[in-house]
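Recap for those who missed Tuesday's class. We walked through two folding examples back to back. For each one, the amino acid string is listed first and its predicted structure tokens come directly after. Nothing is annotated here on purpose, so try labeling regions yourself before you check the end of the notes.
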Amino acid sequence: MTDLIVDVEILTASERTLSTLKSDFDDIEERQDDTANIWCSEELRSAMEEFATNMHHHRKELSQKIADCGTKVSATLDAWEEADRKLEEELRKNTSESPEPTR
């Protein structure tokens, strides 16, 4: 049987990254109009506006999926920390109940 290895630091970093990603992703719509001035060609500007409009339809669904993933990472982190705490308690309890070794 292999040992289960959970890197709490990676889970914590993933939780923060997903939160930041969702925030940035949700903010994209507000920045849509900010980019209109950088497109030199009217055709390019029109294409980018069309893309942004189409993306608007999918943004809520994608944002929810990012949020769901973050929730799952958080739940995994919480469950792991709880399991680790319980294992530590049991180990301390069992270690303190062990008789002193005889010499």
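Example two. Treat it independently of the first, because the proteins are unrelated.
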Amino acid sequence: MTKRISPHPKGDRRFLESEQGDRAMSILSRIRIPMIDAGEHDGVVNLLQNLASRMPGRLEPLEWLVDTFGRMSDSFRFAGCPGESW
């Protein structure tokens, strides 16, 4: 049996959820794909939704959410995206 290891420790998750949006974006830009590949879909989605709600003027978190849902083949979650206008 193999043990699944998250690409980031819990301390990093707390940092990403902190008020330092630009630094969190920088980190997420590097770890979101490895997290998805490791099966941490819900973790990535939660982090990106949190970031998108804290940075409403930035499109990157929303674009990354769309990319994440596409990689997960989960178009049903688009309706829950922050910034939804349809």
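Answers for example two:
The chain has a mean pLDDT of 76.
The chain has four helices and no strands.
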